[in-house]
Amino acid sequence: MTEEKQNEQFDESNQDAQSVATEDVEVNETETSENVEETVEEKVVEIPEAELEQLKEKATQEEEKYLRLYAEFENYKRRMKQESDIIKNYQSQRVLTDVLPALDNMDRALKQEGDSEDFLTFKKGVQMVYDDLLRSLKDNGLEEIESYNQAFDPNIHQAVMQDNNPDFESGVVTEELQSGYKLKDRVLRPAMVKVNE
């Protein structure tokens, strides 16, 4: 046989094999899709109405449980943020409270009188230190409570004496004996005052 005849026979046998394979694949695809449909039809099962209701009720209960848990977690996050904010806002409270007696002593020292040049120089130095310290404390949230000629407020004032001064109305602070201080909206120490009758 010549080479051309061999090639023609080879091509013909290849074409025959391909057509047989294609027919097999088509038959297999048809059989497979029929099998899948039968399997799907077999798996569809009728659920009794009572069991369906139980499943729906269980799903509702699980959803409610999830929603409650989610709400609790959101509340927890909100509380943690509030506590964090409070800690951040009032973190300097202890230090400020501890420094107040030193501030009072410096204030008393500045109220002393003297004529000598050494005393005046010393007083000026104390005044500078006092001003710097007070400025630093105010930068950290310390506020002095205004008392003189203000209406007495038991939340921020501590009345230690009564006065009978006709120049002031009744219930008004006539003298501040010791300064009071706040940190934001929290009273660190009430002002000790003398109140008019």
Structure notes:
- α3 runs antiparallel to α4.
- The chain has four helices and six strands; from the N terminus they run ααααββββββ.
- With 197 residues, the chain is an alpha+beta fold.
- It is elongated and about 130 Å long.
- Strands 1-4-5 form a three-stranded antiparallel β-sheet. The protein has a three-stranded mixed β-sheet with strand order 2-6-3, with no helix packed on it.
Q: Specify the number of helices.
A: 4
- Flag low-confidence runs: 20-28
Shape: elongated
What is the helix/strand order?
A: HHHHEEEEEE
How helix-rich are the residues, as a percent range? Answer: 55-70%
Mean pLDDT: 82
Task: Briefly characterize the structure.
This protein has 197 residues and is α+β, with helices and mostly antiparallel strands. The protein has 4 helices and 6 strands.
